[in-house]
Write a structure and sequence with these properties.
single chain
């Protein structure tokens, strides 16, 4: 049964990558904040590792993260942007594992907010007008299983974006599936931000629908070198395509992990439409809390993004 599900998933993913019916002109999607990295772990891997989610902080971008939740967890993701761009971006999340008829499941909820004021207004002739603000927010809820072999997850999202006095609303969904061949190898895929989006100021808008598929290998360094330690090396390679990309983005990430208590991460993203991206980060767990940090330089903004995550299990 798992092989049949896997075959159908691969065919569906191939059709989405090849299908021209959802291609949009470059830069032609709206609500792009929904395709930004949210968690510090994901950012540290440059977005790679769709099949290797580690905790609930990744739920807002990767529904398969629900499969990694073994204890209830709540937390916050926060992004600090360079000066003269946008205000900070904050995501709050909650994940609750439970059993239904002996099936291990996880329910999730999330909230996102991005906003900034003091934008300089210009009229059609280029003269200054009054300043205005812009903001976007979303609410989401999801459900996924916690199987050791095949994982599935789905979530629904309400998103609103407002610029000055004009607003757009979207009802979107995420789905994902992952197959763990064994404890050392897994692959998975997600389709995110598909659904309905209203027009904006009389113009049709398109949501940032995206497909990501990837593989992850886990090398047990301690066993490989016959050492008495709990070091593991996670290596991931993913392909990512958003509706306004003509070519996929290739993402690569690595995480050196010690007993899920200490992690060092690096990532690289080869982007055909914009500048390539590199990133690095770390994670520390103390008791029921975990803290993650990542940094990604942005040459175009003469600075970089700082990603922070704080999660509490209970």
């Amino acid at each position: 049964m798992n092989k049949k599900i896997l075959a159908v998933s691969l065919v569906a993913c191939s059709l989405v990558f090849a299908g021209e019916h959802w291609n949009v002109d470059a830069g032609g999607v709206s609500m792009k904040y929904l395709s930004m990295h949210a968690s510090a772990r994901t950012a540290g891997l440059s977005g790679a590792g769709v099949a290797d989610a580690a905790n609930a902080s990744e739920i807002s971008r990767n529904p398969l993260a629900m499969s990694a939740v073994q204890e209830a967890e709540a937390g916050i993701n926060h992004i600090i942007f360079p000066e003269m761009t946008a205000d900070d971006f904050t995501t709050a999340y909650l994940a609750l594992p439970f059993e239904f008829w002996k099936f291990p499941l996880t329910a999730s909820a999330g909230f996102e907010f991005l906003g900034y004021d003091g934008i300089e207004g210009r009229d059609e002739e280029g003269f200054k007008t009054s300043e205005y603000g812009a903001y976007a927010w979303s609410l989401s809820a999801g459900l996924g299983n916690r199987s050791k072999v095949f994982n599935w997850a789905t979530s629904a999202r309400l998103s609103v974006q407002t610029i000055d006095d004009e607003s757009a609303i979207a009802f979107l969904g995420d789905v994902g599936g992952a197959y763990h061949v064994n404890e050392y190898f897994a692959f998975g895929a997600t389709l995110t931000n598909f659904g309905y989006m209203s027009d904006y100021d009389g113009e049709d808008e398109t949501a940032p629908m995206a497909l990501q598929a990837g593989i992850t290998g886990i090398l047990p360094i301690a066993k490989f070198f016959d050492l008495q330690s709990n070091w593991n090396l996670h290596m991931s390679a993913d392909a990512y395509r958003r509706a306004d990309m003509q070519d996929p983005e290739w993402r690569f990430g690595g995480e050196l992990n010690y007993a899920d208590l200490l992690a060092f991460r690096m990532g690289y993203a080869a982007r055909p439409d914009t500048e390539d991206g590199i990133s690095a980060g770390l994670g520390v767990a103390v008791g029921m809390a975990h803290f993650d940090y990542a940094y990604s330089p942005k040459k175009a903004f003469d600075g970089g993004y700082h990603y922070l995550t704080l999660g509490i299990r209970f």
